[in-house]
Design brief:
The complex is a heterodimer of chains A (143) and B (705). With 143 residues, chain A is α/β, with parallel strands linked by helices. Chain A is 41% helix and 17% strand. Chain A is globular and about 40 Å long. Chain A starts with 7 loop residues before the first strand and ends in an 18-residue tail after the last helix. In chain B, strand 10 and strand 11 form a beta hairpin. Chain B folds into 4 domains: 201 residues, GAF domain (Beta-Lactamase); 99 residues, PAS domain (Beta-Lactamase); 93 residues, 2-Layer Sandwich (Beta-Lactamase), CATH 3.30.450.20; 156 residues, 2-Layer Sandwich (Heat Shock Protein 90). The longest helix of chain B has 50 residues. By secondary structure, chain B is an alpha+beta fold. A 6-stranded antiparallel beta sheet of chain B has the order 3-2-1-6-5-4, with helices on both faces. In chain B, 29% of the residues are buried. In chain B, helix 3 runs antiparallel to helix 8 and helix 17 runs antiparallel to helix 18. Classes of the chains: A alpha/beta (143), B alpha+beta (705). The interface between A and B is medium-sized, with 23 and 27 residues.
Chain lengths: 143, 705
Amino acid sequence: MSSEGKYRVLVVDDEAAVLLTYRLILERQGYEVVACGTSVQAIEAIGKQQFDVVLCDYSLEEQHTGFEVISAARLRDTDVPAALLTGYATKETADEAASQGIGVMFKPIEIEEFLATTSNMLRKNHEPKQEGEKDDRGPQNVR
Amino acid sequence: MATAEIRFQPGRASGRRATQPRRPAVLRLLQAERSEEIFPLLLEEIIALGNPRALIVDVNLDSGEVMPAAALKWPRPQMEKFTSALWMQEHPLIAALHSARPEVLRKSNLHNKPLYVHPILYSNRNLCWEADRIRTASCLAVQNSRREKRVRLEDQVCATCEMRAYAAAVVVELPKNYSEQSVAELGELIDLANRYLSRLFKVEHYYNRMRDMEITIAQMGTVMQSMADPVILTDTQHRVIMQNKAAERFFRVPDEMTEGLVRAVEFNNLLFSAALSSMLVSGSDSHRDLTLVDAIEGEEMLFEAVSAPTYGPDGIQLGTVTVMRDVTDLRRADQELRLNYERLSDAEEVVRQDRDRLNLIIENVGDPIVVCDGKAKIVLVDPLAQELFGTETDVVRDTVQFQNQTKLTAYIDAFTASFADRETAPLRLYNPALRQEIEYDARSGKIFGERGQVAYTVTVLRDLTALRKMEQLKVERRMLEIEKFAATGRLAATIAHEVNNPMEAIKNAIYLLASAIPENAVPVYSILKSETERVARIVRQMLGLYRNTEQVKPVNVNTIIEDTLLLLNRQLQRANVEVQTELEALPDALIAADQIRQVFSNLVINARDAMPNGGKLRIRSRHIPGYDDLHGWVRILIADTGSGIPLEMIRSIFEPFVTTKGERGTGLGLWIVKGIIQNHAGKLSVKSRIGRGTTFKIDLPVVKL
């Protein structure tokens, strides 16, 4: 939670254009957004501040994956809600994410779905709600 | 003619002549009432005409003898000259007889005075009754009367009525002063007498015949009465004219009888009458079975009635003679015999069918079969087993077959001695066709004899290597297909992934621009947005198909159906779709679970989309067993009550980018379904009716590893 009472979101994607549009969409929704293009930057940002939710591309620069970033965030805050954004996930990836309580959102993502899932994850973790959105979809089962 | 014995009394004739005036000869001759009386009267008249003496010779048509039969005033010693025979042609009397013409013998060695010889034959101007009835002119009497040709005395038997006629000759000694006229008068008198004689002869013939017939009728009656079978003579109205005692038992009502039996007799009559009528109507068929009640014993009896029409002399039917044969026992025995025969042939047919079926089974098992006796000696082999062991009769010379036999005998020996009724064991035998040793799966059973000893053992050899190899090959081929599919998938995924990120950015950018679009650019913006969404959906579908590349493993398809429905439950509820499932117990199928889940998911979502106003979704699954427990199919039916697929689209529905959903659809769902099912070596088909709904049928093969 930021000083202005906004939820702080960490969004990570190695594609600059995608990262930018995610940041803009989330900002328009009223979140405080930190956008990182690499896992290194993201882990660095996690070291600096606490996030209310982590949205992370699965495949990052070189052989890094979103799991690393989320693990780092969980080291700081064990309960932090997190979701992987990916176009392609093997069964093993999906199973691992599920076992760690990490949501998976498959690209291309419907923006309504993207926003609803994000807000859902926040609502689950923080009883006071920022937005009055109603959505019955669970964070884990996007598709 | 039996007139030879007649004694003529000359005194009586002369006396009559002396006392009263002579009546004309015609009238005197008419006095004769019997044929025997004619000759004496004739002789008397001849003498009365003034001829000194006369005699009549009679021809015995049987022996040919010719002898005097009656004489008047002819001294007996002189009569002997007139005894002769028909073959003595030179005898003047016989010659006269043969010529059948009267003649005067002036001088002959017969007599010292002139003689008048007048042959007479049975003759009439009218046909006899028989000739008249059968309308023929060949009546002997008429032929004799006409005298058209020489008459043969030997033929004096009528060809029509078989009446034996007579032949005779009147011999008269002429007076010294005889004239032609007196001879002519004599001839007329004799002819007249012969006419009377012929008439009397005819009457007597009929009289005799009547007496004979009476005797015959009496004899026939006796025969008829003494017959044990009922015989009935009926008229054309089926009224009984005559019946024998055996028939009366059934058809006549005796005086003292109960009412029931009277009715039985009436009923018998009715049945008989009906049988006669039906025989008459059917014409040719003159045999009928009749069940009658014995009026005395009260028992039912079965008769075979045989009828024959009786005809009058004019050829008109007078009635019917019916003879009835008691066939009660005969028919019963016949029926029993037939029944037994049928039973026998049925039993034989069953045995024959069983044998044929058994042969067919043995021939079609496709595995070698060996039958051994209790001492492990081969007694029967099918053609396949012959290749391995040789025939049961020949002495084995082939070393390979000998080795195989030794191995088999060792195995069968052990099995026969064991306590097990059945056994399955591996047996390595050399297969000459494949030129290698093969492991067979020997399955044996025992057939026990009457005393509980092992009479035979039956062994079926299954070539497990071939079977396993085939199954292995099948699985490998499927694995390869699935791997190929997965590889293609990974490639497509990579491409999609590359498209995916730029598209994600575009999509997001469009979203962000939404509020900044000038009013006149809104339509263009809408196109940009909707088309981008469409591309997004296509990419999503493709990635969905290839997203998870998992190993195939045995899975119960029912659990996948249930998972899919659980996942889509909320969507279906929202669309007001009622779900009905009938999931039968299934064997595990070797599948890629996620792919099959995708199939069901796609089909269920299609069903939902086809029912915008709600409806019913039915999902059924069942196991279709194959020809053995190794194979078979899992069948899944997914049916909706939606709008249906137009006929013109149904063929192309599985092709990519074909959709019934317009802009909302990608046209990839069913294409993916088809791809997945094909890669599972399954079958996919669709049935649809506009306005009624669509049913998809999926068959997935069950293959056990």
